[in-house]
Structures are given as C-alpha cells and as structure tokens.
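Final report, results section. Input specification for complex C-07:
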Amino acid sequence: MSGTRDRLRGLAPFALAACLWCAASVVDAARGQSPSARTEELLYYPSGLWVRQAALGYETAAADLGWLRCIQYYGEHRMTDNRFDRIGHVTEVVSELDPLFLQPYVFGGFVLGQEMGRPVEGLALLRRGLERNPESWELAFETGFLYFVCFRDHAAAARYFALAGRLPGHPEYVDRFAAFAFQRAGEREMAILLWKRVLATGNKYMQDVARREIRRLGGDTA
Amino acid sequence: MRPVLAIARNTIREALRERVALIAVVFGLAMVLASQVLAPLALGEGKKIVTDFGLAGSSLLATLLAITLGTSLLYKEVERRTIYSVMAKPVRRTEFLVGKFLGLWSTGAALLVVTTLMVLAVLTVAYRDTPWVLAGSLALTLVEIGIVTSFVVFYSSFTTPGLAAFFTLTSIVAGHFAEDLLYFGTHGGTSAFGAATTVAYWVLPHLSVFNARGLVVHGVPVPPERLLFAAAYGLLYMGALLAAASAIFERREFR
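Structure output:
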C-alpha cells in the first residue's frame, strides 16, 4: 500500500507539469483566435514615465525587455500585414526608460519615416534622441538620412550630415555623405571643406576620391 | 573590535552553510544562457542586454540575499537561544549587531563581486570586450547593499523575520519614490502634509544615488566625486540605522 502511495507521489510532479503544459497550450490557442488580439496588442503598454517609476532602479533592464518586445512586434507584422501602428509608442517607452540607448530612436525613426510614411513622427523621435544625446553622431546622421530620403530636403540633410561629422567617434563615410549632400544642395564651398576633412583621414582610397571630387568642384587640394 | 570580527566571521560561516555559493553558480549559468539565447534576438544589441541583465540580476540577487538571510539569522539566534551564550561572554549587544551587520554585508558583497565578475567574463568571451567601467556601478551597488543590510538589521532588532523582510522591502520601494513623495507633498497638499513629506524625503534612503547602471552600460564611467559622495552618504546612513538598531536592541528583553 505504501509502495503504491510512494509511486503516486513520485508521479505527482510529472502530472503537475502535464497539467501546466495543457493549460498553457489552451491559453496560447485562445489568444491566437481572439478577434481583438491584434488591435489590443501593446495597448496595455503604459507610458515610459510610469514604467520608469515602476522599474525601481532597473530601468535599463526594463528598456531591454521593451526593446525585445519592439523587435518581436516589428517581426510579427513584417511577416503579416506590414502595419506597425504601435512602433512609435513602444520605441518612445524604451527611450524614456534608457535615454542613452540609441537603437530605439534610429530604428523607430527609420520604421516611422521609411516604412510607415510618417516621416514627421520619425523626425520628432530622432530629434528627441538628439536632445538627450547631443554628442551622438549616429542620431545626427540618421536625421540627415531621413531628411534626404523622405523629405528630399538636401540642404537639411547636409546640415545634419555635417553635424554628425563634427561629433566624436564618427566614421569616415559620414564626411563623404555630407560632401555629396552639399553638392546636391548647391553649397559648393562647404562640400570642398568637407572633402578636405576626408583628406585628413588615413584612408588612401578615400583620399584619392576626395582629391578627385575637390578638383571636380574647382577647389585646391594643397 | 575583536568580538565584532569574530561574530562577523561566524555570520559568514552560517551564510555559507545556507549554500549561498549555489546562487552564484545558477547566476553564472543563467548569464551564459542569456548571452546565447537573448543576444541574437536583440538586433546587434546583445552586449548591452547581457550587461543590463547581468548587472540588474547581480544587484537583485544580493538584495534578496541580504533580506532573506539577514531577517532569519538574527531571529534564529534568539529562537535557538544561542544568543544567551554569546551575551554571557564579554560582548556588548552593539558589538553583536555590528558583527552581524558586517558578516551579512560581506556575504552580500562577495556574491555581488562574484556575479559581476561573471558578467565581465561572459562579455570578454562572447564580445571580446572587458568593460572595466562596470567597476563604478559595482562600487555604488556595494554601498546600496550595505544600506539594505542595515535596514534588515534595524528591523530585525525588534520584529519577526516576515515583518522585517516586509518593512525592508517597503523601505527600498519608498526610497525609490522619495522625490515623488516630496513633489506631491509640496505641490497642492496642506502645509502639514507638505512638512510630513519633507521629513519623509530626508529620512528615506535616496537609492537613486547608487544606481549608475544606466551610465556604465553605455560605457560612461562613474565620476569619482559621485563615488565619494555615495560612499559618504551610504556610510552615514548605515551608521544612523545601526545606532538606532543598537538603541532598540540594548533595551530588548530575551525570554
């Protein structure tokens, strides 16, 4: 009798695990069938300020969870309806939690501007990022990129590329983009100056291109 | 000083008997797992995620360890009546409390250091980068754990383990809302409410002083003046709490 009881006791954890697995499967299936599931997704996401308070000092870890959720959301909709209505809100929450985290601004700005046709909102997100990270050449460059491809505003794009080129840590191609943008915008002198900055870099091939472009613009490579 | 150190050593030994080292092993495995599973999902932000979760996890574990271990250890001494044999020796109650505090703080600090080293090791192996700036955050968290431990000792000096854990957690949460409390109290409330919230603001621990995780994860070092200020503030706060705990413990009667 006690042997049977012991055997039953030994099986109890497996029975419990099986019950939990069944329950999880039922919940998962029900979630997929709910007609409101799609419209309700991420609606529960509270404001960034609220989450910041609730995170109790672990804001950056909370921001990472938000970032993973953001990528998951984008991936799901990319494979289905190509609608990313909540992406602005989620990236805003993540950036509120971790203002120095650059990817939410860059990614949010890109999706809003390029894929959703809402470049004004994308620009607003990138500008907020620049206000919080005035030393980030990435954000300045992405803002210039958005002006260039979404607004076709070459002058504004050139201004932001040039700003990125003045910020610490920027790669050499930023200067080249700035120079090209200024040429399109007709600001020849500025383009020559930027190409001259490329001359100061250690890349031989880039220096060759810079010399060629400066000569083409009628400048002096000395 | 000798009795204090003897009690501290004994407290560490007791903590080790509770298999604290096991927590560090589980943490290390979780870190390696997280770096392999989460990082590829993060679109190039794997290193940040591993660092964030690593620092948050090590801080959270050390805090929970201080609370669970601290609240039960002092209570056990009284329940098992082992405190009588300690008190029969030339040991003052204050020394007993300070020894307990130092032992608990050392245990929490050791766990924090080991888990942070694990984070550094995972980052070095997985991302070929050893961000030494994490040391600034570690130093601040060590002081924060000291404050949590002093709260545990303070509440344990007069109440049961369950209530001591509850009060400590409440103090930590309130410490994160200190500034909001002051804001609400001084904007629109009555003058008495404003005065009460101002007092609460000064009494509650300002735990945001010890949180530099948002800086170091982006490679920004913690300024030395902030470290000095945090150390001075933390030591003062711990001293005040231990003094209060000692005053209560001196008057306590053991049956």
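The mean pLDDT of chain A is 79. Residues 161 and 178 of chain A are 5 Å apart (CA to CA). This concludes the modelling results for the funded period.
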